[in-house]
Every structure is written in C-alpha cells, then in structure tokens.
C-alpha cells in the first residue's frame, strides 16, 4: 500500500490560494470580442433588390403626377424681358442638375411604360411572360401522311409516321412520292 501524504498544517492555506489563482473556470470568458462591431454594409439578395426597384419606380410615377417639382421655376420680370442675364449661383446650378436628373428619370420611366403598354408583354428579369420557344426540342412533330402526332421517323425515307399501320404505307410508297412529302414539309434535300 502506498504511503499517505503528510497532512498540511491547519493554518497553511497557501496551497488552496495557488489552486484558486490557477483555476481557469473562475475567469470570465465573453462569447464575442468586446471590441467587435457588426458590419455597416448589408448585402441584399436579388428579390430584395428587384422589389425595391419596382417600389421606387411606382412611387416616382405617383409623385410625378402629384407634385409641382417637374414644372419649371417661374421667371422673374427682369429675366422675362431679357435685359439682365442672371449669373448662376451654386444653389441654382444644384437645382438645375437635380431637375435635369429628375426629368431624365421621368423620361426613361415614361418610355418604358409606353413600350410596355403598346407592344404587350416584354421579356425582362421582372416579367416572365415571353414568346413561345422555337427550340427544336419543344416543337411537336406530325405524321406526313395523316397529320396526327408522329412519335416515329422512318430512317430510310425520313418521313414521320403515327403508328405501325402508317409505317407499312410509308414503306410501300414509290421512290418519288416520299420526296414529295418531304418537299411539302420543307425537309427535302436539293443537290446542285
């Protein structure tokens, strides 16, 4: 059996003080750095950006109809006669730039509105209505003989057919007749 360590003297608690000093569980540990601050920049997804743009366009159209900011400033009597040419001050230059920018944005919005009202739906990022696809994978094929939907094509004559009965008719056609069917469909080959 191992010898028991000698008991510390009753008045000596230096060992306990050392343990308390080295104990890491008593030290405060904040979750995040106290000097950390959140970023001031906020990233937006495309849905938020498009929503903000459409709301801004709608509010600009409404406010343009109800505000007097789009009308030019009335001229003074001295300017109306043409006897005095006013010198543009900094406030007047700023108002002219603001008015020009506002007029430009109004013209763009009006042109977009007229284009959308006159020609029907336009394919844009905010509008999913568009013309039908002309991709060959989306076009339906029809039988050259009957006009019914044709899931099959004869590899020999390149005629499209609806079922096995029509296939026997296609195979029994004379040589020039198959070319006439292809010519009617616009798929014939002309050798020069």
**Proportion of beta-strand residues:** under 5%
Radius of gyration: 42 Å
Kindly report the average pLDDT value.
74
| N-to-C series of helices and strands | HHHHEEHH
Q: Outline, from the CA principal axes?
A: elongated
The count of strands amounts to: 2
Helix content: 40-55%
Number of helices: 6
Give a quick account of the main beta sheet: strands, pairing sense, barrel closure.
Answer: 2 strands, antiparallel
Instruction: List unreliable stretches of 5+ residues.
Output: none
Considering the chains and any ligands shown, give keywords for the structure.
two-stranded antiparallel ribbon; mainly alpha
Description of the molecule:
- It is a single chain.
- The chain is mainly alpha-helical.
- Helix content is 44%, strand content 2%.
- It contains 6 helices and 2 strands; from the N terminus they run H-H-H-H-E-E-H-H.
- It has helices spanning 14-22, 46-66, 77-81, 90-119, 164-172, 175-185; strands at residues 152-153, 160-161.
- A two-stranded antiparallel ribbon has the order 1-2.
- A hairpin with a 6-residue loop joins strand 1 and strand 2 (160-161).
- The radius of gyration is 42 Å and the shape is elongated.
- The termini are far apart.
- 3% of the residues are buried.
- The mean pLDDT is 74.
Which SSEs are present, and which pair or pack?
Layout: H1 14-22, H2 46-66, H3 77-81, H4 90-119, E1 152-153, E2 160-161, H5 164-172, H6 175-185
Antiparallel strand pairs: 1-2
Write a brief structural summary.
44% of the residues lie in helices and 2% in strands. Strands 1-2 form a two-stranded antiparallel ribbon. The protein has helices spanning 14-22, 46-66, 77-81, 90-119, 164-172, 175-185; strands at residues 152-153, 160-161.
